[in-house]
Specification:
The protein is mainly α. It is built from 16 helices and two strands. It has a two-stranded antiparallel sheet. A hairpin with a 2-residue loop joins strand 1 and strand 2. The longest helix is centred in the middle third of the chain and has 28 residues. The radius of gyration is 21 Å and the shape is globular. The chain starts with 15 loop residues before the first helix and ends in a 14-residue tail after the last helix.
């Protein structure tokens, strides 16, 4: 089916950044070739969504755990494409659920083709990912992808059901994001380890690492959604709270405030359309974020979780894998350093 050569290899002697960049080149070529097999009616939009950009975190996790050139290059790239297609499908659907107008500085897919068609496009991408997963000689890949897809949707559904529910706890929030974001990270690490021939113990540890990293990534995204300003971001901001979604900053704020202040927060989050709230209401809530130092408390929460993710590296005995994962995590360290430039006064400045 695919025109990308199966014999492309990446020498482990190359520097980390060179190896990673070369893998992504192979991945992008395989992704384009794979999507070219789709039906004419959806091919154009699938390619637009896939090639709009992206950090390709899940493909890189597959690559690192697969052992680079030690396993079939095509198997590693194909598995990476499958997981990225599932991720892409969730983004198409998430933008509809959140009413987001932008994705990577471009109109969200539902803004281009309508919500009805965008939902079906996401469904088609889910289906195609599972079709490709079923082409492996083992059912293990398809089962892992299917489970991660189900849990991702389940996490999103549970968080959707909890919209406007001010009693949402921190543990419940972590449960939401553990599924809706962490599961695809888990699947990426587990599949990579499986392709490398790891035993079940290492595969499970790889999955724990992925889940932990996924939580960190989603917390970071929630902080950006709440505190970043539009000109510094390539997607719509404030969509979570504007749809009544309880995320880390708001949960921490609600825990810290007085009973009278909590009534203000509850009134804001419970209304059917929080985006119609008054400027005065927003200024009051913004002042509460500053009063209770919620931005710094949220960053502390993220740093503690990221520290746990780093400690999980000790579970792996393969020195090459550990070094590559350290280099990979250093990208997140740089990414998270961006938080120091945020200001509470940016809250809801969207």
């Amino acid at each position: 089916m695919n025109n990308v050569s199966c014999n492309l290899t990446i020498s482990n002697d190359l520097p980390y950044e060179v190896r990673s960049a070369r893998f992504i080149e192979f991945f992008e070529a395989y992704l384009v070739d794979s999507l070219a097999q789709l039906d004419d009616e959806i091919r154009k939009y699938a390619l637009e969504a896939a090639l709009a950009g992206g950090k390709r975190i899940r493909p890189l996790l597959v690559y690192h755990f697969a052992g680079h050139g030690l396993v079939s290059q095509e198997s590693t790239i194909k598995a990476s494409v499958i997981l990225e297609l599932v991720h892409l499908a969730t983004l198409v659907h998430d933008d509809i659920l959140d009413g987001a107008k932008l994705r990577r500085n471009l109109p969200a897919m539902h803004e281009k083709i309508g919500a009805h068609s965008a939902i079906l496009l996401g469904d088609a991408l889910f289906g195609y990912a599972l079709e490709m997963a079923a082409q492996f000689p083992t059912t293990r890949i398809c089962a892992t992808v299917a489970e991660a897809t189900r849990k991702t949707c389940s996490g999103e559904i549970r968080q959707t059901f909890a919209r406007g529910c001010t009693s949402t706890s921190l543990d419940e929030y972590v449960g939401f994001i553990n599924d809706k974001t962490g599961e695809l990270f888990r699947a990426s690490c587990e599949i990579g380890a499986y392709l490398a021939g790891a035993d079940d113990n290492i595969i499970n540890r790889a999955g724990e690492f992925g889940l932990s990293l996924g939580i960190c990534y989603q917390v970071f995204d929630d902080l950006i959604d709440t505190f970043e300003i539009a000109e510094n971001c390539d997607k719509s901001l404030g969509s979570d709270l504007m749809t009544g979604k309880m995320t880390l900053p708001f949960i921490l704020l609600r825990q810290a405030v007085s009973s009278s202040e909590r009534a203000l927060l509850d009134n804001f989050i419970k209304v059917p359309e929080p985006h119609l709230s008054s400027d005065q209401e927003r200024r009051q809530i913004s002042s509460l974020f500053e009063k209770y130092h919620i931005l710094s408390t949220s960053i502390d929460f993220l740093e503690q979780n990221f520290s746990h993710t780093n400690k999980l590296l000790n579970d792996f005995t393969n020195l090459s894998l550990k070094n590559d994962l350290r280099a990979f995590l250093s990208r997140f360290t740089d990414k998270f350093s961006k938080l120091s430039a945020l200001k509470t006064s940016n809250f809801l400045a969207v």
